[in-house]
Amino acid sequence: MKIASIVGARPQFIKASPVSKELRKVYHEILIHTGQHYDFELSQLFFDELGIPEPAYNLDVGSFTQGEQTGRMLMEIEKVLLKEKPDFVLVYGDTNSTLAGALASAKLHIPTGHVEAGLRSYDKSMPEEINRVLTDHCSDLLFSPTKTAVNNLKKEGIEKGVYLTGDVMVDALVYNKEIAEEKSNIIDKLSLTSKQYLVATIHRASNTDNENNLENIVDAFCKVDETVVFPAHPRTVKKLKEYGSYEKLYKHVKLIKPLGYLSFLKIMNHAKKIMTDSGGVQKEAYILKVPCLTLRENTEWVETVEDVWNVLVGSDREKIIKAVKGFEANRVQRNVFGDGKASEKIVEVIGRYYGD
Prior knowledge:
- With 356 residues, this protein is an alpha/beta fold.
- The chain has helices spanning 10-23, 44-50, 66-84, 96-107, 127-138, 147-155, 168-183, 186-189, 205-208, 211-223, 234-243, 261-269, 279-288, 302-306, 317-326, 342-353; strands at residues 2-7, 28-33, 57-58, 88-92, 112-115, 141-144, 162-164, 197-201, 227-231, 253-256, 273-276, 292-294, 310-312.
- The protein is 47% helix and 15% strand.
- The chain has a 7-stranded parallel sheet, sandwiched between helices. It has a 6-stranded parallel sheet with strand order 10-9-8-11-12-13, with helices on both faces.
């Protein structure tokens, strides 16, 4: 059986890594890279570090507006699917690559699986939320990471083909955590001391494309009495310079290029706290048991907030500063994201679907 896996952005490379390993034990996998993330630090470095097979196709779509990027991906993915005629298509997460892959396969009547199905922030101003909802309603097999995600689908009338598998990012993190400790020298390279610095990431349009929000967040970074390690997406750096915030970054804010998975995993593991607007990083912080401050007004990973390991601070300068100083995480966690065997369960479900 031939399975086409569609990826395009950093979080998808991480999610696809353990699933691809399991798929290739049984099936013929064709990896399609849309080119949504194309910088070396956000793309090829992840393939190299995670041992992901070289994509059979790299569509090199690049950056455009939401509509144009999704449309270009849809056209190019359709061409590949018509040529390869896969039996099944697998998409991941909530990016434009996810939606384009799901739409292309659904319109060609190819059964589709969605890894990370059922997540909801209930904020339709976020393009990711639109991508999640539409992808779920296009898919035949829905691989949900949590019970909350399963319940979200049920509320929308989706019960057939839904499977609680756990989260594939747990699989990747469990496998790579010790490798990161051994291979990455990022702590020494940046002259950091374990548990005496913060890690920050900003990439969502609601922050980067809003001058007031980005300036408030940067001001908070500068005013906290802590070293802040800030691996910045190229687009975020462009906006920082455009708004004049780049020059305001003080010496204790270490603005660096995006890191590979292993180095980023290591600096997260040794951080005192993490500040982010990324869904994946919120979850990784929880799994690593590092308190997280989410620079958004909502989250699709509600379990991290319910367990008091994550607090929503938005782009409010004073809330960020207060949480850096005073937010204390709970010392107890539920096993909400699974046992690190989600990839095996996904491949098993696909096999049952086809009677293998």
